[in-house]
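Narrative progress, year one. The postdoctoral researcher (J.K.) led the effort to move from monomer predictions toward full complexes, under supervision of the PI. The following entry was the first complex the group processed end to end, covering 280 residues in total.
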Amino acid sequence: METVAENQNVRNAKKLEKMFGHIDFKHPPELCPVRDVMSVASDQWSILIILWLGYFPVLRFNKLKKYVYGISNKVLSQRLKVLEADGYISRKAYPEVPIRVEYRLTDFGQTYVEKLLELTEWMQTNSPKVLANREKYGLI
Amino acid sequence: METVAENQNVRNAKKLEKMFGHIDFKHPPELCPVRDVMSVASDQWSILIILWLGYFPVLRFNKLKKYVYGISNKVLSQRLKVLEADGYISRKAYPEVPIRVEYRLTDFGQTYVEKLLELTEWMQTNSPKVLANREKYGLI
DNA sequence: TTCATTTGGTTACTTTTTGTAACTTACTCT
DNA sequence: AGAGTAAGTTACAAAAAGTAACCAAATGAA
């Protein structure tokens, strides 16, 4: 791959290499764990599920469905499975009738929700700019 | 909506309210700018496009396509449009033949790429854990 | 002159992913 | 006997994404 130094001035290139050089989003997905892992963790439904489980330490399926407004049973169930497989959340089923299932963040999930919260705060702060821009763009 | 204090012990609830209370991911999408804006900005292709434009300050369509490995013309073109509409990137076309088009981050996009870089570093650090977990889960 | 090449897309068509809504299981309560 | 309940699953429809061919308009080569 061509380096940034070939396209930009050298001073800037050094800074960019320091910021980006060690991060591995630069490979095809099958060779790139970052892309692979991120595509699950930054999915829009995954984000909401994890945020809600950060807010309410324990949630059952139907509560999650209520809070993650708009999600379908099917997708919620799918996402919960992959989030569990990836280690963000845990699932505990109690063999009562009707069955009771509790979802919560793992310790690992807790570290992720902190990152997500930062991202979400950024979105909260900046969404007015984005909406204003979108509006303006629509008129052009 | 029910508050966290009704479900959890009060000490923890205060902390959670402080962290989450002011953030607005709790509404249906049509009422929730955060969900709306985030669904564009945290899309897997959007993330890669923005990261690459953080790394190479100027990129043309076909370079982007090469670097954002696996993206199709169609989706690249769509994403560039919405990212431009939302104010993250700018598009400048030079009426040469064949046409030359330059994409770069806006100042606003620059502030976002910094957030994304943090997220990406987290993914880089933690992807081994996720992959290991996934492996283990597969056996169960 | 005719033909291939170039960039930044678009278009038509196929495949995959999502959304919708009805259904299931197994036990309890009326 | 029939209704209700929690946590899903299933079949079918709709939307999104992937694929690959195509386009314009000029340049350079044959």
